[in-house]
Design a protein that fits this description.
Helices cover 39% and strands 15% of the residues. The chain contains 34 helices and 34 strands. α14 (397-407) packs antiparallel against α15 (414-432), α18 (517-543) packs across α19 (589-610) and α20 packs antiparallel against α21. The longest helix has 27 residues, at 440-466.
Length: 995
């Protein structure tokens, strides 16, 4: 052992300023060397000394980095890279308690026993080394330094409740990453510090933490080795670690080394546990707080007096056992394992025949296994390097260039970049070795350049993954309780302190969906706090906005441009809905009230505008009696009501009452009573919304597209939705009620008892095919009988035109060839016209009555509905069979030996085309004698209206006209006076006079 003179052991817990004291002492000498346990700490000390003395006199030497100026005075090194035999004035070794470390302890023990400065030697570390130093270095002086602040145990605490400026410690890469990800989601992000990081990456992460960009640090136990960080609290996520061979519990002094990072200078610190770590026992916690630990009784040692005569002698010298009782032989390290493996390779053994070759092999074996892939692969790499060095004296440039080029990639995730950094550290170490490469400066710079690029890329990936700068900034500003500046773009994008946080949709803030759920609360809190002034400015602009910028949706929503600002809710009156606004609570009641008033004004004006005829009807004071009651029913029904629902009310109205109602635009249709102006798309859309609100529907039916005469029936639609949409269901489709009234006008002229076919005008106004029209008619209460017949060709039409003016032969049927209708139709139409008094008051939709025009006298017949026979169809008309006898034989009665005009000969009958036609009859007209009795009183059997099937049922009793006398038990009704203002007055007077 070397002499023990002028040796001082500076011992004490963390945060005692031991490293700072050593730097000051070294700078007090002309030359000095300081050994540090980590290259991260070495870089930190190097930067401090450079700041004090300049870079020209300070060297940095680690396994992967070598900066040695020509006039170097002060050497900052890792303990393994400390130069030997320099004769420097000052020498210091930090964290000397690592002499007991199973992996690296033998290096620190060797420096403790053999490394000395000419004038002063310092060993810095824990007070647990006092007994070992006193035993191994007689005469050593001791300097006790006390902690400058208190360290207190705070117990377990969840990560979500961790206070800012805390460090969470993990003991594996996976654990560190998992904790950092959790903190990012809940706290905005964390810096990551691990011993495996390059100094450049580590410094960038630490700087991010020190500058306050993030408030949390997630690290391995590397922070316990003298790294000076502004940490207030240290939390252990585990109390055990893998030491390279097995999982073991951390000793109290190891926990204290890490926990001591909490508190800096005179600022107190705390420590505790988090995650799955069990709470510390009272004894362990007290030992850490009082800095009382079991003294180190055994130090790890390995022989430094190596023999290089042969590989066997070298291995034997490395396995020598120590003589002192406090020293224990180190377990086999990676370098010794690699030496054993290579000594078994014949080529290596053939080359190692002298001392220099064995020394070279040992130097190669000391290359650290940064990659950590496998011992065999690492041994293979060392074998290739040794062969190059032994055969050529250096590593070939092209081979080294290929190795570095494969690693020089910055793509990939964190794991890929970390592996490449581990790989490049091997070549950085190789490039630092003097004489191993042809151009040492070039390859050092090349390896360093790749490491820097990979380090920057890794820092970027770590930041992207574990730091949400937006949440971090907002949290920091919230913690500082300062007013934050929010900006809202024209498109609604919200930025707070320059960070995009979401969008302002109307008066509700919608945060960015890219964040995790835990971040949502933070972002919304910060954004809403900053948006309060914006809410007031936007409310003023909205209150002064014109109605053209506001609209309602078919589901009752209220929109300002593209933003939803409220919705309609049912009020006490169907025409006076209320408004529920969408305003964030933090905007305040003033903003909410202003938005509510503006929306209420909008919907009130919209109803008054679109429902003006209905509003005038409700306010008409001249309406009295039954007319006023009927007007109330119309207002309740929002201007559209099926006639069947108010049939008795309509019958009870006199002509004056009807005239007064017609002045407001009410049309008394055959199927529906309605206001035509309210059938337009805009009132229909609003009517559906108001009706749905009144019904309390969860989902409102949508208004049909404008311009459609018929629409498919929606089976899921609520009852009454078709009427509110302005349509009536008939079969599988619904027809617009105004077009239905026009169709009813056409049907009124048809003989619905004898049967009729659809006219082209009927198909035209409905826009349907013949099959669709048949379904519609069945939905209205008609029967539709399908048939086929020979299609009339142009040649037949020509023959018909040729004989148009000539009288028909007695034995030839008369038929309208151009219209392709049966002869019965012609005779029926030529029969006595129906009584005009039997016609209802329904007017054609194309020519609505003018205001004040009274309607015809009320018919004694029932209106045309699905439940009653149309008035026109029960009017007096000639029996079909009588008409047929008067006009000649029917088509199907033509003798078989005669050929009608235009008909092809028998040889060509098979070539004739057929066409489909439908014959429509009123579906409720043939229900037996009982129905006649219900409708018209007592009718004897065989008299009254015919009960048979007309032309299809054989002969019908009776003669001309009705063919039977009507009987009634009730007295005849008094004849109604004819209104001279009625447009049918002249026709009615003429009919009366002719009787």
């Amino acid at each position: 052992m070397a002499g023990e003179t002028r040796v001082t052991a500076v011992l004490g817990p963390t945060n005692t300023g031991k490293t700072t004291y050593a730097i000051e002492r070294m700078l007090a000498h002309r030359t000095g060397v300081i050994g540090l346990p980590l290259r991260l700490l070495a870089r930190e000390v190097y930067d401090r000394i450079v700041a004090a003395r300049g870079p020209s006199v300070v060297a940095l030497v680690t396994g992967e980095e070598r900066i040695v100026p020509p006039r170097t005075q002060y050497w900052v090194c890792t303990v393994e890279a400390m130069p030997e035999g320099m004769g420097c004035d000052f020498l210091a070794v930090d964290e000397i308690q690592l002499c007991a470390d199973p992996e690296r302890g033998h290096v620190f023990t060797d420096r403790l026993l053999r490394a000395r400065g000419l004038h002063e030697t310092l060993f810095l570390g824990s007070d647990t080394m006092r007994g070992a130093i006193r035993e191994l270095i007689p005469g050593a002086q001791f300097m006790q330094r006390d902690r400058m602040s208190d360290l207190t145990y705070s117990g377990p605490k969840k990560i979500s409740r961790m206070r800012p400026r805390s460090a969470i410690v993990g003991f594996s890469v996976e654990n560190v990453y998992a904790i950092a990800e959790l903190i990012r989601r809940q706290k905005g992000g964390a810096a990551v510090v691990m011993g495996a990081l390059s100094p450049r990456t580590r410094n960038a992460q630490v700087e991010m933490y020190q500058n306050g960009e993030v408030d949390f640090l997630v690290a391995t136990d590397a922070i316990g080795m003298g790294l000076n960080l502004d940490v207030d609290h240290v939390a252990f996520s585990a109390l055990s670690k893998f030491d390279g061979r097995r999982m073991r519990m951390l000793a109290p002094n190891e926990l204290a080394q890490i926990a001591g990072r909490a508190g800096r200078g005179m600022k107190d610190g705390t420590f505790g546990v988090t995650g799955e770590a069990a709470p510390l026992t009272e004894d362990v916690a007290r030992a850490i707080m009082d800095h009382r630990f079991t003294p180190q009784k055994k130090l790890v040692w390995r022989n430094s007096a190596l023999q290089f005569g042969s590989t066997e002698r070298l291995i034997a010298s490395l396995e020598v056992s120590p003589e002192h009782e406090m020293l224990v032989r180190a377990r086999e390290a990676d370098d010794l394992g690699a030496l054993r493996a290579l000594s078994q390779v014949p080529e290596i053994m053939a080359r190692c025949t002298d001392g220099p070759s064995v020394r070279l092999l040992w130097d190669v074996c000391r290359i650290p296994d940064f990659r950590g892939i496998s011992h065999a692969e690492h041994a293979g790499l060392l074998e290739a390097i040794f062969n190059f060095l032994h055969e050529r004296g250096q590593i070939p440039d092209d081979w080294l260039a290929r190795q570095i080029k494969r690693i020089d990639r910055t793509d990939g995730d964190i794991d890929a970049l970390s592996k490449r950094l581990a790989f490049i550290r091997t070549w950085t170490y190789v490039a630092q070795r003097r004489g191993w490469t042809g151009d040492e400066s070039h390859w050092r710079d090349a390896a360093r350049s790749v490491e820097d690029r990979l380090s920057d890329a890794l820092h970027e990936r770590l930041t992207q993954r574990f730091v949400d700068r937006r949440t971090s900034v907002l949290l920091r500003r919230l913690g500082q309780k300062e007013a934050m500046v929010a900006d809202v773009s024209n498109t609604g994008e919200v930025t707070v302190e320059g960070e995009f946080v979401g969008r302002l949709e109307g008066f509700r803030f919608s945060q960015d969906k890219g964040g995790a759920p835990a971040e949502t609360k933070t972002i919304k809190t910060a954004a809403l706090q900053a948006l309060v002034p914006q809410f007031h400015l936007r409310a003023d602009r909205f209150y002064n906005a014109p109605d053209t910028e506001i609209d309602f949706t078919e589901q009752g929503g209220l929109m300002w441009g593209k933003d939803a600002v409220g919705k309609l809710v049912a009020g006490a009156d169907l025409l006076k809905p209320q408004v529920e606004v969408f305003v964030d609570d933090i905007a305040g009641p003033d903003v909410a009230q202003k938005v509510q008033r503006r929306l209420q004004h909008f919907i009130d004006r919209k109803i008054a505008s679109l429902f003006e005829p209905l509003m005038n009807l409700s306010r008409d004071e001249t309406l009295t009696g039954l007319a006023r009651g009927f007007a109330f029913r119309m207002v309740e029904a929002l201007g559209v009501i099926p006639r069947a629902e108010v049939a008795e009310d309509v019958k009870a109205l006199d002509q004056d009452a009807r005239g007064a109602l017609r002045k407001h635009g009410i049309r008394f249709g055959q199927f529906t009573i309605f206001l035509p102006l309210l059938l337009k798309p805009a009132p229909t859309r609003l009517r559906l919304v108001l009706w749905s609100l009144g019904k309390g529907l969860g989902e409102f039916p949508e208004a049909p597209p404008p311009g459609l005469v018929t629409i498919p029936v929606d089976p899921a639609a609520p009852a009454g939705a078709d009427t509110m949409s302005g349509y009536r269901i008939a079969g599988e489709r619904a027809i617009r009620i105004d077009m239905l009234e026009r169709l009813a006008d056409m049907l009124r002229a048809e003989n619905s008892r004898a049967g009729f076919e659809a006219k082209a005008d009927m198909l035209s106004i409905t826009g349907m095919t013949l099959d669709q029209f048949a379904d519609l008619m069945q939905g209205l209460g008609y029967r539709a009988e399908k048939g086929e017949r020979e299609k009339v060709k142009p040649a037949d039409a020509a023959v018909a035109e040729a004989t148009d003016g000539a009288p028909a032969a007695p034995d030839m049927p008369v038929m309208d060839v151009g219209s392709a209708e049966p002869a019965e139709r012609l005779t029926t139409e030529s029969a006595e016209p129906a009584d005009p008094l039997a016609v209802t008051e329904a007017e054609p939709a194309t020519q609505p009555p003018s205001d004040g025009v009274p309607e015809p006298a009320e018919s004694t017949e029932r209106p045309l509905t699905a439940d009653a026979v149309p008035p026109a169809l029960v009017a007096d008309e000639a029996p079909a069979d009588t008409a047929a006898r008067d006009s000649g034989p029917a088509v199907d009665e033509v003798p078989s030996h005669e050929t009608p005009p235009g008909t092809a000969p028998d040889s060509e009958v098979s070539a004739q085309e057929t066409e489909v036609f439908y014959t429509f009859t009123w579906g409720r007209a043939n229900r037996g004698a009982g129905q006649g009795a219900r409708r018209g009183g007592n009718r004897p059997q065989g008299k009254g209206k015919p009960q048979g099937k007309g032309k299809r049922g054989g002969s019908r009793p009776g003669g001309k006209g009705d063919g039977a006398q009507k009987y009634s038990a009730r007295p005849p009704k008094p004849e109604k006076k004819i209104d001279p203002d009625n447009p049918f007055a002249a026709a009615l007077m003429g009919l009366k006079d002719s009787k």
